[in-house]
Amino acid sequence: MTIANFLKASVARWLSSEKRLKFARFRTELVRKVRRADHIIYYFHRADDPYCQLMVQVLPDIASRFNVVIKPLVVEKLPANMYPDPQRYEAYTILDASRLARLYGLGFSLSATVPDRLAVGMANRFLASRQSDPAFFTLAEEIGAALWRQDLATVRNMCSIADVSEDTLTENEKKLHELGHYASACLSYGGEFYVGVDRLDHLERRLNALGLGDDETGYEIHRLWRYDLEELERSVSAKTVEVFFSVRSPFSYVGLELISELAEKTGVRLLLKPVLPMMMRGMKVPPAKRGYIFQDTAREARLEGVAFGKVVDPLGEATWRAMQIGYALQDLEKDGQYESGKALTFFRTCMRAVWSEGVDASTDKGMAQILVKSGLATDFEKQALSREETKRRAELNKNEMFRYGSWGVPTFRVEGETVWGQDRMWAIVDALKQ
To answer: What pLDDT, on the 0 to 100 scale, is given for residue 162?
Structure first.
């Protein structure tokens, strides 16, 4: 490993560590006490974000259980470069929100479609004029419900008078940017972000640690999927879960670990479909998004017991080598020269090495370590597929993922359902149950 990579891995390990997190929280709390400020949580709302429709239903509960002040801020224009495929993203979030609503017992229209743009504009401006209203969350829920069921008459009646300047929305969007985030349905508290109902359990734990709440964690339902495995019929062992992932994606790393655990306990077959990372397909990931993904992966991995943090970024050569070897192993499995699961073992070993053990997979020495740990000969790379063939197969997998309605990794396809995200094991279990 080069000195540069060693230093980067050490810095990444510190930035993702619980020790650094505790220190940052201690410093934040100390500053708050010196200033004698309240515990303020900023919530960024957007009327046409389906996740916001869920958030406004649960935030009154958070406000009642914890000694905090939640300040809603309405936004409308979000950075376009944060969403590489906005149409697929928008369509998928509606489906995903309906799943989350069922899981958490919340309201969301079963026939929801992309809401009318003019009505959305009216709703955002009206709600921006009511940001200080104690009834904001009730108003937002009622208006949002009308939007998602395409009840434009109700939206017009409720939002006909909106005494608000366009500057309010602009200032709120600037505030979101200054805090360091880019998405709506986002809570900002003390330098950390909690996006969507499935991150509220992180906030609950933090507030409880400060002695501000009831010591309960009511929003971790999505993490209880392991208990449901006992109820699955034996017939699920004949089913297949397609796994679209990228060696360079930290969420894919955690997702591959969790889906492997699910497969080991249920007997379902995993069909691996590696794709090239966005940055190796000519796309860019803005710094704010990279930073949030890294920190979110760190806390998710910590909670799920997945080692993470000592990172040597596999972008480029390391990813190519891993995919060339992985595809070759898949071919050898099909030919019966290796037992089923050898490619999975290799990919898990490789991703664990680059995301948690500080191994530089772009070097011969680093890849040799990974091959040995995978139960392969150090010269196995001689059997690897060509880069051209690897690129062709990765492109086929990417196009298939797009056809399924997803835009990024990790994506899972099971029983006709498309599921995106390493934190959606519960949705995969639900699909298997069906």
So the answer is: 66
Q: Where are the domains of the chain?
A: 38-223, 225-433
How many helices (DSSP H) and strands (DSSP E) are in the chain?
A: 17, 8
The SS3 assignment for 188 reads strand
| Cα 328 from Cα 394, distance rounded (Å) | 13
Could you report the per-residue pLDDT of 285-338, keeping only the tens digit for each? 899 999 999 999 999 999 999 999 999 999 999 999 999 999 999 999 999 999
DSSP structural state of residue 281: G
Give CA–CA dist 400/196, Å, rounded.
28
Cα(44)–Cα(41) distance, integer angstroms: 10
Decide: helix, strand or coil at residue 210. Answer: coil
Protein fold of 225-433: Glutaredoxin (3.40.30)
CA separation (Å) from 84 to 87, 123, 166, 395? Answer: 9, 26, 27, 17
Q: Which two tokens stand for residue 93?
A: 């979030």
pLDDT at 231 over 80: no
CATH number of 38-223: 3.40.30.10
DSSP 8-state code for residue 49: -
Each residue of 84-118: pLDDT tens digit? 889 999 999 999 999 999 999 999 998 999 999 99
Instruction: State the chain's mean pLDDT as an integer.
Output: 95
The rounded distance, in Å, linking the Cα atoms of 333 and 329 is 6
Model pTM above 0.85 = yes
